[in-house]
Amino acid sequence: MYIDYEVADGIATITLNRPEAANAQNMELLDELDAAWTEAARDEDAKVILLRAEGRHFSAGHDLNDGGWPAPDKITLEWIYDAETRRYLDYSLRWRNVPKPSIAAVQGKCIAAGLMLCWPCDLIVAADDAQFSDPVVHMGIGGVEYHGHTWELGPRKAKEILFTGRPLTADEAEKVGMVNRVVPRADLDAQARELAAQIAEMPAFGLRQAKRAVNQTQDVQGFYAALQSVFDIHQTGHGNALSVSGYPILVKLDEMKARLK
């Protein structure tokens, strides 16, 4: 079990509990996480969803050691496309559209696919040591599968972060509106829970309608269509990698691990 789930005082708390691997995401973790989101969505005692993580880091992204992928000589673009559609794009979009407010509490490193866990949440509370990055351009791919970069950061900051691979600090993330508030690391859980409790006092129907209004406004502006089209662009990166270098996740493994230090 990689995910803990509990409900108290109107707050459903979903916890990533794989700290020994910096909460890296293998397929089992993602499936358990999706099941927890589904449970929170239908749980009548839950008015607000709080996503948090045990350990030093929120998430190191995809598990590059034990992600559940086939051996390199068994990987095909068709397999990648189907697997990533289900567990990456579809999961993240489903979590975004759960009809209850959600908050991500982020500490330490949030790398690449880690963004696909916090960006679908409605609010983000970041510890002052939080860093957000998407370094997959180093792998010859234009960004993670849930390509919310332009919406979360604005076009020029999104390009900077992608082109350089450098992490965005919590303070920078707050300045561009990606993060709602930055708090001391020691206070992260308490302040995220306090915000969740404040929201839980509001009428559930009003919260649902407010969330729907904002999400649908983004969708009318092109959010959903853009994510779908950029996902297909992402797959061309995999296709190029398969034809050129075998598969870059394996080639760049040591480099990606170094980013956790």
From TrEMBL:
Coiled coil: none
Pfam families on file: ECH_1
Origin superkingdom: Bacteria
InterPro entries registered for this protein in UniProt: ClpP/crotonase-like_dom_sf, Enoyl-CoA_hydra/iso
Family: Belongs to the enoyl-CoA hydratase/isomerase family.
Name listed for the protein in its UniProt record: Enoyl-CoA hydratase
The species this protein was found in: Actinocorallia libanotica
